[in-house]
Specification:
Length: 117
């Protein structure tokens, strides 16, 4: 999918409303529309990277920045005692939106089992 049609690119450009909890020139974060827990937001690069499978060395600083932000954003949303991060990737990973994003989930204690296989 092109960046023009991508739903997260549209949220980045404020063409679709979302409850943003953070934004800067490279990264933004907003509440998931179908929360799986009391706290559930997505951390997203403005750059349209399709998935974690497409990441390469040119993205290292950007991904480092995203992961540097997550702890402080999670604490600001009330996850003082921990949270879960998930990056669904590709068909097998159950990825729905093909623009790289990190789910940050918390606010209930304990969270359910990580995987039911
Ligand atoms: P994925 O399965 O790709 O890892 O997760 C995509 C997530 O994006 C889902 O949890 C879904 O609820 C969320 N989502 C999809 N469309 C929208 C939207 O238009 N607004 C918001 N805030 N979240 C969305
Ligand atoms: Zn996009």
């Amino acid at each position: 999918m092109s960046a023009g049609a991508c739903i997260f690119c549209k949220i980045a450009r404020n063409e679709i409303p979302a409850k943003k909890v953070y934004e800067d020139a490279e990264v933004f974060a907003f509440n998931d529309i179908r929360p799986q827990a009391p706290v559930h937001f997505l951390v997203v690069p403005r750059q349209h990277i399709v998935s974690l499978a497409e990441v390469d060395a040119t993205h290292a600083a950007l991904l480092g920045k995203m992961f540097t932000l997550i702890g402080q954003l999670a604490r600001a949303q009330g996850c003082e005692n921990g949270f879960r991060t998930i990056v669904n990737t590709g068909r097998v990973g159950g990825q729905e939106v093909y623009h790289l994003h990190v789910h940050v989930i918390g606010g209930s204690e304990p969270l359910p089992a990580m995987l039911k296989w």
